[in-house]
Design goal:
Layout (H helix, E strand, L loop, with lengths): L1 E9 L4 E5 L6 E4 L2 H18 L15 E7 L1 H7 L6 H8 L3 H8 L7 H20 L3
Parallel strand pairs: 1-4
Antiparallel strand pairs: 1-2, 2-3
Helix pairs in contact: 3-4
C-alpha cells in the first residue's frame, strides 16, 4: 500500500495542506477536519476528472494508498489546545508551559530535539490509550 504524505499548516484565518510526495493534491478549510476533507475531495476529483495516466503515481497503485497527516509543531499544538492543556503537555513532554505556549503561538520554533520530545510523548500516550480497556 502506498502512502501519501500531506503537510498541514495554519495561517491566520484557515488551514492549508499539500501532498509532499504527490503533485496536485491540495486542500484548505476553516478547521483541520475541513482541510482533511478537502484533501480527500481533491483526490476524488483527480480520479474522477483526469485520465489515469495523469494521476499522481501514488494514486495509480493497485494496492491503494493511505494518507499520513504531517503537522508543523505550531499547528499541532493549536489543534489540540482544547484537549491538552499546557500543564498536561509539560507533564508529558518535560517542556515547560511557557515554551509550549511560545511554540503554539509562533513566538519561537522548536528545535529538532523539542519536536522529537513532543512527538514521542504524544505517540507514547496514543499507544497507551490504544491498549487500555475498562
Amino acid at each position: 500500500m502506498e502512502k501519501i504524505i500531506v503537510q498541514i499548516g495554519a495561517s491566520d484565518d484557515h488551514y492549508g495542506a499539500f501532498a509532499i510526495n504527490a503533485d496536485g493534491i491540495y486542500g484548505a478549510g476553516d478547521t483541520i477536519e475541513d482541510c482533511k476533507a478537502d484533501v480527500i475531495e481533491s483526490i476524488r476529483l483527480i480520479k474522477e476528472n483526469l485520465p489515469k495516466s495523469q494521476w499522481p503515481e501514488l494514486l495509480q497503485s493497485e494496492s491503494g494508498f493511505d494518507i499520513e497527516w504531517k503537522y508543523d509543531t505550531q499547528t499541532l499544538l493549536q489543534h489540540f489546545a482544547g484537549i491538552f492543556t499546557n500543564a498536561a503537555l509539560e507533564r508529558l513532554t518535560g517542556i515547560n508551559q511557557k515554551q509550549l505556549w511560545n511554540y503554539a503561538n509562533g513566538i519561537s520554533k522548536p528545535r529538532a530535539a523539542a519536536r522529537k520530545k513532543i512527538q514521542s510523548a504524544l505517540n507514547n500516550l496514543g499507544k497507551e490509550l490504544v491498549t487500555l480497556s475498562l
